[in-house]
Amino acid sequence: MRARIRSQTEEALIEAKDANGGVAPAEGVVITNPRLKELEVELRSLRDENRHLKEANEELQGQMLNKGFELGQSLVNPPPGESIADELGNLPDNQV
């Protein structure tokens, strides 16, 4: 998707350059090409979505890290009656 947007943006810039006598539009210049404006809006939207997805990813990674820590802690310091030895002791001989 990024490649498509990049390609379309480059095409729109070439069109703008051709329309401007071979001079590329400078930063901060008002862009009149409707397709270029549309692509800029889409680019902003995709950047916002990307930022939100990165934030959600960081949150999920934190949750996974916390869950892993809790699981490791329960293996090292199990609540009374819930140790692996207790569980194995309660299994029939054919399941051990």
Describe this protein's structure.
The protein contains 3 helices and no strands. With 96 residues, it is mainly α. It has one domain. The longest helix is centred in the middle third of the chain and has 43 residues.
Structural class based on helices, strands and sheet pairing = mainly alpha
Count of alpha/pi helices: 3
- Overall domain count: 1
Radius of gyration: 29 Å
SSE topology string: HHH
What percentage of residues falls in helices of 4 or more residues?
over 70%
Quote the average pLDDT. 79
The biggest sheet amounts to:
none
Number of strands: 0
Task: Estimate what percentage of residues fall within beta strands.
Answer: under 5%
Query: Could you say which overall geometry the principal axes of the C-alpha atoms support?
Result: rod-shaped
Low-confidence stretches: none
Distance between the termini: 53 Å
